[in-house]
Amino acid sequence: MRSSVIVRLLLAVPLLFMSPLLLASSSWDMTPGVTDISSQVFHLHRTILYVCIAIGLGVFGMMFWSILHHRKSKGAVAAHFHESTMVEIIWTVIPFIILIGMAIPATRVLVAMNDTSDSSMTVRVTGSQWKWNYEYLTYDDDKSVGVSFFSVLSTPREQYERQGKGFGASNLPDFKAHPNYLLEVDKPLVIPSGQKIRFLITADDVIHAWWVPDFALKRDAVPGFVNEIWVDVPVGKEGIYRGRCAELCGKDHAFMPIVVEVKTKADFKQWLAGAKVQAEADAKAAAASVDYKYPSIDVAMKEGEAVYVARCAACHQVSGAGLPPMFPALKGSKIAVEKAHLQDHIDIILNGKNAMPGWKAILTPREMAAVTTYERNAWGNATGDLVQPSEFAK
Amino acid sequence: MSAEAMSHSTAGQGHDDHGHHAPLKPFLLRMFTTTNHKDIGTMYLVFALLMLLCGGLAAMVIRAELMYPGMQLVQPDFFNQMTTVHGLLMVFGAIMPAFTGFANWMVPMMIGAPDMALPRLNNFSFWLLPFAFAILIGSVVMSVLGMGSAPNFGWTFYAPLSTTYGPASTDFFIFSVHLMGISSILGAINVVVTIFNLRAPGMTLMKMPLFVWTWLITAFLLIAVMPVLAGVVTMMLTDRHFGTSFFDAAGGGDPVMFQHIFWFFGHPEVYIMILPSFGIVSAIIPVFARKQLFGYPSMVYATASIALLSFVVWAHHMFTTGLPLAGSLFYMYMTMLISVPTGVKVFNWVATMWRGSMTFEVPMLFALAFVVLFTIGGFSGLMLAITPADYQYQDTYFVVAHFHYVLVTGSLFAIFAGAYYWLPKWSGHMFNTKLAQMHFWSSLLSVNLLFFPMHFVGLAGMPRRYADYSMQFADLNFWISIGGFWFGASQLFFLAVLFTIKRQPKASANPWEAQEGLEWTLPSPAPYHSFTQPPEIK
Amino acid sequence: MGRKPSPSTQSRQLRWLAIGVVGMFAFAVFAMPPIYRVFCELTGLNGKPTLANAQAKPEAVLDRKVTLEFVTSVDAGLPWTFRGNLTSVDVHPGQIHRVSFQVENLSDKAVIGRAVPSISPAASTAFVKKTQCFCFEQQTLAAGQVVEMPVVLYIDPALPKNIKTITLAYRFYRQPDIEQKI
After folding, report:
1. Could you give the CA distance from residue A88 to residue B344 in angstroms, rounded to a whole number?
2. What are the tens digits of pLDDT across the range B65-81?
3. How far apart, in Å, do the first and last CA atoms of chain B sit?
4. Where do the domains of chain B lie, and which CATH numbers do they carry?
5. Considering CB atoms only, which of C1, C13, C28 is closest to B232?
6. What is the CATH number of the domain that holds A254?
7. Backbone CA torsion sign across B304, B309, B311, B317
8. Across the interface, do B227 and C75 touch by the CB < 8 Å criterion?
9. Are residues C88 and C161 in the same domain?
10. Measuring CA to CA, which of A130, A324, B316, C121 is 20 to 30 A from B299?
């Protein structure tokens, strides 16, 4: 009989929706995270979820009872009531009280999350299209740490650019080689455990959002503004935590992950000392590279091609064809082909323009000279120009 | 139950009008020049169906790309164009015009009026839409032909992604939105004036069907907030081309202000998209439970409270932007509060069913599914209201799951329910029940396969508007995509219902044996001009 | 049709609805930005400070310490370096401090820039009293020119007790070049 099929199907529906109860320890639910705050957030989530499930079971239970028993085919005769002020009041007041019950712990957690005082370290996090920059500002007594670096997706481009290579399970990225596919970066953010870390979140171009689920931290990175958040990862929870950009920021929104490496305080101090030394060495090398002279166009182009693929191809494409009008072509373009525009070419690589970032803070003069030489000679541009690092003296 | 036994007078059904009417104009001329609310209602509904299919096509591209990890089919920028256009087409092209189509068809008949108060304005309001969407869809066609990007900044078009960094098509997008906005505003004005002035004598406001009430309130919301949308896209235009810096930090502006102004429109907008469904479902459940709607006055007050509260909750879309603590708390409390009147409505529907005598024709199937599934969407909405928890939900698939539950299994299912309910009145035929039931069951199962796992994938950490994702989201995304294709295919049943309807048995004036509703005193199909004389209301 | 309303009733309704529509548009474009700006100025909640009264003579509160941090950045397209002489300094509320920033135009032509400040936490903005600042003003630097730009400020002693660190972030943006007429 068709009605019994209907009945059985209808009974299956509540079971589907009770599946949240199976979330107990599954990877389908929010992570409880590793901090005190993230655990409180998780408990708020579970509490409101259980409240909703309870109300849902009650309401849907009554509904399905009604569907089963108050049906004409069973001979049910309709009652005539259609109002009751008492009942209306009850089912307005009771939900209201339940909500107050939820609002109180939620308020407490929110107040705690807003307290950024007494932190040991301040890190400026700057989002740009499509990478993060971390700048260590202060740490304990060191008021001018001076370590800063970009953190860029390190999953190779050919792993995720798979258009035209087939569809389906036969064209998947190599997860064995990249188990953290789209969640790995070249230089993670490193922080110590057991200390309160303050983050200043901002952006260079459009709105991004910095989100680390295990810390229950998500804040928009708004250009021209600074948002402040904090984390305190307990001692014993050292490890690697991965997050994602959480605000649509353009084409590579899904390709600018966040990796945070939490070390013990001692290990962090060691790392920081090394990073400072490295930063000074890098700065010296960058400055020194101004004096480097490329012996030939070929040498410059070889180095330049590597820089181009790593830094420029995202927008201007490996073929130099770009994605006009947003990302202009370099192949055959005036700026890369005409001698008169050589200085403009150098300027735009140094300082950027509109959506194009400037590279003077990221690349050394040697790298900038190499990539400029590459752009002026590849794809048939063939200007014969050899641009030297001295042109990029800062 | 024959028409004569109804408590409402049968005078003025307009039988006689049809015979004395001039022959109907040739089809094309009629389409462009009609001022008849039934014709215009039909045009809105057909247009909405077309836009539903176009928006669905964009969704198929999205789900095809997301079926497997890796960018296997499209470029990330094109993916962003698909998500943007999907949202715009569904919100402004499918849902809103569909409800406007229902308003046009049903409001005059339900209040015993011969037509809308401003019939020529009605025609104009409709015809703005094909032009608006030709512009928008045109930019997609141009994009596919390699001539530049269609809008790619999400249907919420935040600045500065849409201002400083928007593609050239953004200016066409702005113009298109202006046209859609004018259409909605003029339509809403028409609804308000119609309901205020053209009710049959004796039909007081508290005697109107709830569908009319929900549209009256929706119309006021539209008049209040669509101009704000027009304002924000105008400010975008001036920022882009006329040297202003409303949303540009470099010029002293604030991108977050964009979000405040947008969501001041955007939140009432989502209630604009749901209130008429409440009206449809409130019409259907009593009929098939054979029991009067429980608590009519409180349903009216609840709808009005929801509309009022919708103006003070907008920043719950902005919890992660860096709101001050007091602001976050205020919006958290107000958003939680709005669940109270919404809950009251759900309880009232269940109380209507309780100790009724239910049958399960297709309109009732969709209405019952609406009650359950919209409520699930409401629950995820309540979870999102909890600000500290929202820090983990915001901009993830949890939000995507929430709004698709309230908009698809909510608004769209109510639209299907209303379509099946009133199709006999519109067309004069009973639709093919088998096909309609296939439409329902196939849609019900597939829509849940499509959207329920999105809750999990969002909780597990997958952000929205992501063209590609990491390994751990692969399994669920695969099944979500299967659900998507299945749900899309299920709509073919609906098309089959529509295409075969004329071959089905003729419908009587009141095939559902409704006890209330002036439309059921009219023959099926309803005469081209109905209630030229006002009916008597007891 | 006896129940058609008098044309004046319908006209009146249409007039009010039209006023409502136009009014809401005008509200969005002409009222919402100023309301937002005033709200932000009064509460400081967008992190944008205003210049304080230069004649103010605050009382130093010596038993309280507030840490001030300075971060600088330069927008793409601006060929300048921009550095503060201090990243961080501890001050007493009420005490007047002068902080210097060095700006250098690296390019070979005159460039105009303008700095936009941002203060964090937002709740402290109203208590950061700057009597002199280079913010919001056009700064023209000739080719290769190096300029010292000071900020003179004090922290209002009424700063809430739970705020102990204030970050002042400045970002220089390029302004359109002015044609040099010879």
Report:
1. 7
2. 999 999 999 999 999 99
3. 19
4. 39-240+247-521 (1.20.210.10)
5. C28
6. 2.60.40.420
7. negative
8. no
9. yes
10. B316
> For position A159, what pLDDT does the model report?
94
Q: What is the maximum alpha-carbon separation in chain C?
A: 85
Tell which of A263, A283, A303 closes a domain.
A283
- Give the confidence band of B4 by pLDDT, cuts at 50, 70, 90: very low
- Asked whether residue C165 falls in the same domain as residue C85, the answer is yes
Total domain count, chain C: 2
Q: Which helix or strand (DSSP H or E) is residue B335 part of?
A: helix B325-337
Domain boundary among A113, A144, A175: A113
The reply to whether A272 and A306 lie within a common domain is no
Place of tokens 């095939």: B511
3-state secondary structure B5-30: HCCCCCCCCCHHHHHHCCCCCCHHHH
A9, A78, A173: residue with CB nearest B70 = A173
What is the extent of the structural domain holding A57? Answer: 27-113
Model-level pTM?
A: 0.92
In a domain, A244, yes or no: yes
* Claim to verify: residue C35 and residue C81 sit in the same structural domain: no
User: Taking CB atoms and an 8 Å cutoff, what residues of chain C touch A138?
Assistant: 69, 87-88
| Domain identity same for A132 and A188 | yes
Both C39 and C76 in one domain: the answer is: no
Instruction: Give catalytic residues of B, as residue numbers.
Output: 86, 115, 155, 183-184, 267, 269, 271, 282, 316-317, 342, 345, 464
Q: Does A150 touch chain B (CB under 8 A)?
A: no
Q: Are B265 and B225 in contact (CB under 8 A)?
A: yes
| Pairing state between β A189-192 and A258-263 | parallel
Q: Look up the domain containing C120 and give its range.
A: 66-174
- Is A16 within the bounds of a domain? no
Q: Report the C-alpha gap between C119 and C68 in whole angstroms.
A: 10
DSSP bridge pairs for C99: C151
pLDDT, tens only, B280-336? 999 999 999 999 999 999 999 999 999 999 999 999 999 999 998 999 999 999 999
Is the ipTM of this structure higher than 0.90? yes
B294 touching chain A per CB within 8 A: yes
A299 and A277 co-located in one domain: no
The count of residues in chain B is 538
CB-based contact A245 B463, cutoff 8 Å = yes
Tokens of A190: 């490193």
